[in-house]
Amino acid sequence: MRMTALVATLVSLAVAYADPPTYADKTNLLFFQENAKLQPVKSPADWEKRRAHVLESLQLVMGKEPTFAKPPLDPKVTEEKKFQKYTRKTVTFAAGPKDNRVSAYLFVPHNLQGKTPAVLCLHPTSKELGKGVPAGLGPKYDRAYAIHLVERGYITLAPDYINSGGYQIDPYALGFASATMLGIWNHRVCVDYLQSLPEVDGANLGVIGHSLGGHNSMFVAAFEPRLKAIVSSCGFCAFPKYMKGDLKGWSHAGYMPRIKELYDAKPEKMPFDFTELTAILAPRAFLAVAPIRDHNFDLDGVKDCIASARPVYDLLGAGAQLAAVYPDAGHDFPEDGRAAAYQWFDRWLKGK
Which residues contact 68 (CB under 8 A, 6 or more apart)? Predict the structure, then answer.
C-alpha cells in the first residue's frame, strides 16, 4: 500500500513539474494535447486545457509566477498636486520580495459620485521619464493616456516599469528569471492597490499601454483576471513577422533573456506566440490599436493574432469583446486610435 501511495505521489509530482505540451501550430488554437494526442476544442472546458498550456509555456520563457506571499501594501503619498479637473498623487507601495516598492502616479478626478472605474496605465520605453510619459510629462501628447482618461472621469494609475523613472531595481537579484515577470508581479500589485482605494469600483478595472506598455498590458492581463478591459497600442505581432523573425529585441535584460539563451531568438523554437497570448485574454474585452505603418510590429502579424483569437472568442460567446483598429500612422497612438481606446473603456467599464 505504501509503495502504491509513493508511486502515485511521484507520478503526480512528475506531472506537476513536466513541461507543457509543444504546439507546432500556434495559429489554430482550437486543439489541445491530451495523452500525447491532439484533441479538438469543442467546449469552454476544452479551451481551458489549451489556455493552461499557454500560461505554462509563457512561464517557460518568463520564469515561474512567484508564489511568495505579498506583504501589506503600506502605501505612502510623497507628493500631491491639484489640477483643474483632477488631483495627482505620487505614491509608493510595497510589492515584495524584500524591499521592492512600486512607484506610481495616481490620478483622481474631482467631484466623484460613487465608486469609479479605474485604468492601469503602462508607459512606453522611457528610462528617464517612465511613469511620467502617460502622466503627460513627456513631449508627445498622444502618450498622455493617464491624463486623457482621468479627464474622462476614470481613476488612473501610472507605475514605473523596471529601471525606468523613479524605480531602479535588479529583478534577477530578487530571484526573477525576467524583468517581464517582475513587471507582471508589480502590475498585479497595482491592481491590489487600486482595489484597496475606497473610491475605486474594483469590479471595473482596465489596463492600457503603448509600445512597451502595450505588450505589458497583455502580459499582466494574461495572469490577472481582475482586469476586465485591455487596450494594447503598438504592442505586439506574431513572432514570425516581428523584425523578419529575429527576436533578439525581446531577449535583453529588460525583457526575457531566455528567448536568446534557451530559444536562440527564433520564432519556431519559442514555446508561445502572441497568437496564443491574444486568445487567452478571452472572454474579456481586448482592443488592439495597430497603426498600418508601425515599424516595430508588423500589421499582418497583428492581424494574424486577431484571426487566431477570433474562434476562441466566438466559442466563448464573446465575439464583441475582441476588436482591432488600424490607424494610418507609424509607431504612435494617434487621435483616432485613442478615441477607439477610450470609447472601448466607456463601453466595457462604464456600460455606455
Answer: 96, 97
